[in-house]
Amino acid sequence: MIVEFLSLFCLEKLPKPSLIALPSSMVERSSNVTLKCQSRIQNVTFILEKLQDSGYKREQRSAGHHVEFLLTDLKLKDAGTYFCSYKTMASHECSEKSEHLQLMVTDYHDGRVAPSIKTDTSIIILTTFSLLSIFLLFISVLFIYRCTRHGSSNEEPTKRTSHPKFSEQEATDADLSKMERISILTEEPQEVTCAELNTKVPSEAASVPAEEPAGSCECATPKA
C-alpha cells in the first residue's frame, strides 16, 4: 500500500521529454493524429495530459525511449493544448512537463476552426489592442504636458516685454502734462500786462500832450 501511495507522487524531477504531433498539429475533423512523447530514459511510464481539461490523463508504459498516443475520429472538442511527462517504474521519479503542443482541429465543410483556437486568438488580439491603447494614452498625456509647459514659458517673456511699453506710455503722458502747464504759465503774464497797461494809460495821458501816436496799441481788457 505504501508503494501505491508513493506512485501517486513524484519524488524527484527528471529532464523533460519532447512532444510532437504526427502527421501535423493541424488536422481535419474525423481524422486521426498521433502524439509522440519521447525521453532520454528507457523503461518509463509516459503520461499525456490536456491543459483545458484537468481530468484528461492517459498513461502508457514503454521499454524504449518513446511512446505514441493515438487519437482517433477527432472532434472539435479534441482541439486544445497537450503536454506529457514520464516517471520511472522502479523509483517513481518524475520528469518535468514537456513544452505545450497546440492541436488544431478544422472543419472544412463549414469553414470553422476549433473553439479553443478561436478563444486563444481572441485573447491575443484583445491583449494586443489593450497594450496599444495604453501606449497611445501615455503618448497623448506626454504631448499635452509638453504643450502646457511650452505655453506657460511663452507667457513670462510676454509679461516682461509689456512692462517697458507701459513705462514709455506713462513717460509720454507725463511730458504732455508738463507741456500743458508751461503753455498755461506763458499765457497768464500777457493778460496781466495788458491789464496793467490799461490802468496806467489815464495817468500818462494827463502828463503827455494829446497826440496820436503813429501806431496805437489796443489791449483788450479781459472779461471778468
Task: Write the topology of this structure.
Layout: H1 2-7, E1 13-14, E2 18-22, E3 26-28, E4 33-38, E5 44-50, E6 53-62, E7 66-71, E8 80-88, E9 94-95, E10 101-107, E11 112-113, H2 115-207
Parallel strand pairs: 1-9, 3-10
Antiparallel strand pairs: 2-4, 4-7, 5-6, 5-8, 8-10, 10-11
Describe this entry's structure for a reader.
- With 224 residues, the chain is α+β, with helices and mostly antiparallel strands.
- The chain has two helices and eleven strands; from the N terminus they run αβββββββββββα.
- Strands 3, 5, 6, 8, 10 and 11 form a six-stranded mixed beta sheet that branches. It has a three-stranded antiparallel beta sheet with strand order 2-4-7, with no helix packed on it.
- A hairpin with a 4-residue loop joins strand 10 (101-107) and strand 11.
- Residues 1-8 and 203-224 have low confidence and may be disordered.
Q: How would a crystallographer describe the biggest sheet?
A: 6 strands, mixed
Overall residue-averaged pLDDT value: 75
Cα radius of gyration in angstroms: 55 Å
What would you call the quaternary organization?
A: single chain
Number of helices: 2
| Approximate shape | rod-shaped
State the helical fraction.
40-55%
Protein name: V-set and transmembrane domain containing 1
Biased composition (Low complexity): 203-214
InterPro entries: Ig-like_dom_sf (IPR036179), Ig-like_fold (IPR013783), Ig-like_Receptors_ImmuneReg (IPR050412)
Transmembrane segments: 123-145
Task: Give the structure's gist in a few sentences.
The chain is 44% helix and 26% strand. It is of the alpha+beta class.
